[in-house]
Amino acid sequence: MAKEKEQKPPMPPLTAWVPAVALGWLIPGGGHFLLKRNGRGTLLLVSIASMFLCGLMMQGAMFQPQTGDLLTTLINTGGFIGDVCSGILFLASQWFGYNVPDMAGHVHDYGTKFLVTAGLLNILAMVDVYEIAAGRKD
Amino acid sequence: MPKMNLSHFEAAFLFALFTSVVLGVVTKKTDRDRLHYGVYTFVCFLLALFGIGWAMYLGHG
Fold first, then answer.
1. Which residue of B13, B21, B22 is the best one to mutate when testing the A interface, meaning the one whose CB has the most A CBs within 10 A?
2. What's the domain range around B61?
3. Residue B12 belongs to a domain
4. Interchain CB contact of B39 with A (< 8 Å)
5. In sequence order, what are the residues at sequence separation of 6 or more whose Cβ sits closer than 8 angstroms to the Cβ of residue A124?
6. Tell me, what's the ipTM?
């Protein structure tokens, strides 16, 4: 019995999606603006930037990449990647010298999670931009 | 930078709101579906918030 293989859609040319995805990383929602999805870009920009700013105002801690046992590496390196994915928001916070140590307290803890989650949500936005630029989604 | 001092509920509510908006925007293909999914996700977050909150309260004794 012949088993049909699923055909993967061809990879779109780099020039079609790299600028939009790169702009989407730098400015949350920026890739959507580049692709003329202004309404969705605005919602993404407002949501992600608000989440990041709330994280800053709650004095959340930024992760630093660390190695060691598996859990330490996973949490700190993964958290750092999450922070970096916020793009210009992360870069600006570093340029302005934001450096809050990890403190006890539920507000600081929520702040740390807000900062990481803003970056993770921006990754989702970047995937959405890629799919739009590749013609797989409207 | 002004400081924010939120309760657990306020922080979780804001988290649910922002996350639901993004999930709604990036997940579905039509505006109607996006709105429905965003609201659905937000309601699920709130149900989990109250459900787990009460479970912890009752479990704590």
1. B22
2. 30-61
3. no
4. no
5. B22, B23, B26
6. 0.90
Number of domains in chain B: 1
A3: pLDDT confidence band, cut at 50, 70 and 90? low
Residue range B2-41, pLDDT digits in tens: 888 889 999 999 999 999 999 999 998 889 999 999 999 9
User: What single-letter DSSP state applies at residue B10?
Assistant: H
Is B25 part of any domain? no
Q: Where are the domains of chain A?
A: 15-133
In a domain, B3, yes or no: no
Among A21, A35, A38, A43, the residue to mutate for chain B (most B Cβ within 10 A): A43
- Contact with chain A for residue B9, Cβ under 8 A: no
DSSP B1: -
Residue B36 within a domain: yes
The interaxial angle of helices A106-133 and A38-57, nearest 10 deg, is 160
